[in-house]
Amino acid sequence: MGRLGDADVHAAFHEFRAKESDKCLSAQCIYCQSVRAKNTSRQRSHLLECANYLNAMKEHNPQNPILELAANGTPTPAMKVPKKRDHDTMVIGNGFQGESTGSRSFPIPRPALERDFQMCVQLNPTINVGPGIWGQRNWVSFISGHWNGRFGKGTVVPGGQDKQLVAPDLSTHLETNYLLQTHDQPPAFIAVRTEGWRVGPREILEKLADPSQSDEVDPKMYSFRLYIHMETGDNRYLHLNTGMWIGSGIRRGTEVIYDAYRVL
């Protein structure tokens, strides 16, 4: 069993092979971009002194064991790991039936989610493109916005767009493309692409489509979920190119706000 906080250590680094001939991987801290050989103990020691990491944890994850170790010197004891259930082990040739005599089994890691950033986007009025073969088409352009997260903060460049497909029951498929600008000097630019659905009771979706009524809608009354992809050529943010995120959003007047969770 790994040491307490190992998962948090690994989540804070982007692993790569500096040269094809290298036998060992290197690890780059996603908070300060410092690079070192992949070694969990040394990576943990770095995080205990990385001001960017510790500040991000204080704001977004105060229960982080590494943060507690940096503050108190003694992390909270790890919880006892429960006994594996059948569906925790996949058996080759036997589906998800648990271990069986004569079968070779292997553990499959479970993904985890970590809140990574928040996005706020101001929208122009919806343009009704008209009915298509798959449903009603809408077009929504972005005025501006801002974002803040573990890897930085910045603004949303004006001119992004959301191409919507509205089903007869008003369930809406969302497909957006827009550009982020970081607060660095010089700034970096990050292309963002999202895809997802906003679904719920018809009367709730009707209110969400009306900026004058959307503030009255309880976010628990509908589901607004996204897949998020990011791309950049800036060396400071290359780790974003291989990341995976899912988002949970709300609509407030002419603004969309969503939290993005990195898949670990």
Question: Can you put this structure into words, describing what you see?
Answer:
This protein has helices at 6-11, 40-47, 51-60, 65-72, 202-208; strands at 13-16, 26-29, 35-37, 89-91, 105-107, 113-123, 127-131, 136-149, 152-156, 161-166, 172-182, 189-199, 223-231, 245-252, 255-263. By secondary structure, the protein is mainly β. The strands form three sheets. Strands 6, 7, 8, 9, 10, 11, 12, 13, 14 and 15 form a ten-stranded antiparallel β-sheet that branches. Strands 1-2-3 form a three-stranded antiparallel β-sheet. The two termini are 18 Å apart.
Instruction: Tell me which oligomeric state these chains represent.
Output: single chain
Largest sheet: 10 strands, antiparallel
Radius of gyration: 22 Å
Span between termini: 18 Å
- Tell me, briefly, the overall form: elongated
Label this structure with key terms.
10-stranded antiparallel β-sheet; 5 helices; 264 residues; elongated; mainly beta
Set down the secondary structure blueprint:
Layout lengths: L5 H6 L1 E4 L9 E4 L5 E3 L2 H8 L3 H10 L4 H8 L16 E3 L13 E3 L5 E11 L3 E5 L4 E14 L2 E5 L4 E6 L5 E11 L6 E11 L2 H7 L14 E9 L13 E8 L2 E9 L1
Antiparallel strand pairs: 1-2, 2-3, 4-5, 6-8, 6-15, 7-8, 8-9, 8-10, 9-11, 10-11, 11-12, 12-13, 13-14, 14-15
Short description:
The protein is mainly beta and 264 residues long. The protein contains 5 helices and 15 strands. Mean pLDDT is 85; it is low at 76-104.
